[in-house]
Design a protein that fits this description.
Radius of gyration: 22 Å
Largest sheet: 4 strands, parallel
Structural class: alpha/beta
Distance between the termini: 27 Å
Strand content: 5-15%
Number of strands: 8
């Protein structure tokens, strides 16, 4: 949503949107969101200097769920290890989440382990078809809306969030309410896709979590150590890093022999999907793509800086967890939850604009004083080329 009272008409949101879901409208030339085209990436939120862009908050929804009397589980994205440099021990923020009223607090890293194993099985049984891994909801939405011809190349595997929702319902009961806590805005849409045991009743960003801590006056100094509830994840703790899920599944991404290319960031995502579409048979790799620079820098995080400090915190956290890791218990749990349904399908939602008349394009480019070279671009307008802009 864009608050036009706060908006300073800088149009940074228009330029930053990778799918041009924000356009200028009305006599006042205000930016307006076309929700059909939006992929929930959050770029507009990040660049707005006047704080005019906001997204759907789940704070009130989460508080209502906690007040309902139902059993509620918080499933926490492992990116939380990089979100709270101000909390000295992860066991403190686990207890802080419990103090909000959650009956169970589970880390999604175990769901990552399950999904990563599914990907390894998919790639090990390679039959000539290359896939785009479907962990990033913004990437999936981008393909569904703007490259619907690649739907069949999206790996038919649920996200770790959905996998973990199914795990905790198997562990604690079908009637359990589930709240996902993480760095992603597009996960808010993903949480509505399933009505079975994979449903997520609310998706709370880390920003929303901090607001709830503040509202209830919960601070590190007031809580004790508390561990995540089982099942405990293994290398899934590395999921905040773009290549983390490959490590978790033991999927090789060796430069010489690996079958997977990993990339992240807005520009790289767009380029990777374009090249996958045009040159798959030459590249001959599966693609592991994240819109942001890994979940670590997602739009629902509080601070968008200090990327390498956050990366270090994630690795340190994983090493700390693995030091006394009970591998035997983990393997038993992996076997126990091996029957969790990890399959999914996708929907074509073609939002591509019709191809305009070539003469019109050339006329516009001439009027702008732009080169007719199809690859000419200064990138100032936010489009890949001058021709795209025209």
């Amino acid at each position: 949503h864009i608050d036009h009272q706060k908006c300073n008409r800088s149009y940074a949101c228009v330029r930053s949107c990778p799918v041009k879901a924000i356009t200028i409208a009305g006599e006042n030339a205000v930016p307006v969101v076309n929700h059909n085209r939006c992929i929930g990436c959050g770029s507009c939120v990040s660049v707005c200097g006047s704080d005019a862009v906001s997204y759907r908050s789940a704070v009130d929804d989460t508080m209502a769920i906690l007040a309902s009397g139902d059993k509620v589980a918080a499933i926490v994205d492992p990116t939380i290890s990089g979100e709270f440099p101000d909390i000295t021990d992860y066991r403190k923020f686990v207890d802080m989440i419990r103090r909000l009223g959650f009956h169970y607090v589970n880390e999604v890293s175990f769901g990552v382990d399950l999904v990563a194993r599914k990907y390894r099985e998919l790639f090990d049984n390679f039959k000539g078809k290359y896939y785009i891994m479907a962990n990033c909801p913004s990437v999936v939405s981008y393909v569904e809306k703007f490259h619907p011809d690649l739907i069949d190349n999206l790996a038919p595997v649920v996200t770790p969030m959905t996998a973990m929702a199914r795990v905790v319902r198997k562990a604690y009961g079908k009637d359990l309410k589930v709240v996902f806590i993480g760095p992603c805005l597009s996960a808010k849409h993903d949480g509505t896709l399933f009505q079975d045991d994979g449903r997520v009743d609310a998706v709370l960003t880390f920003q929303g979590l901090r607001k709830m801590f503040e509202k209830h006056q919960i601070t590190e100094s007031k809580v004790e150590y508390s561990e995540f509830d089982p099942p405990i994840g293994n290398l899934g703790s590395l999921y905040p890093l773009s290549e983390g899920i490959l490590h978790a599944g033991g999927v090789s991404h060796d430069l010489l022999s690996g079958m997977v290319i990993t990339t992240d960031g807005k520009e790289n995502m767009i380029e990777a999907i374009y090249e996958f579409s045009e040159h798959t048979e030459f590249i001959k790799k599966h693609f592991n793509i994240f819109y942001d620079e890994g979940c670590l820098m997602g739009p629902g995080t509080t601070d968008k800086s200090l990327k390498f400090l956050r990366r270090t915190m994630v690795v340190d956290y994983a090493n700390k967890r693995l030091k006394d890791f009970d591998r035997e218990a983990w393997e038993k749990n992996m076997e126990r939850y091996a029957d969790i349904n990890l399959n999914r399908t996708f929907n074509k939602d073609d939002q591509r604009l019709p191809e305009p008349d070539q003469d019109q394009i050339e006329e516009i480019m001439k009027s702008l004083g732009k080169s007719l070279d199809q690859k000419a671009s200064c990138s100032a307008c936010g489009f890949r080329t001058c021709r795209d802009f025209a």
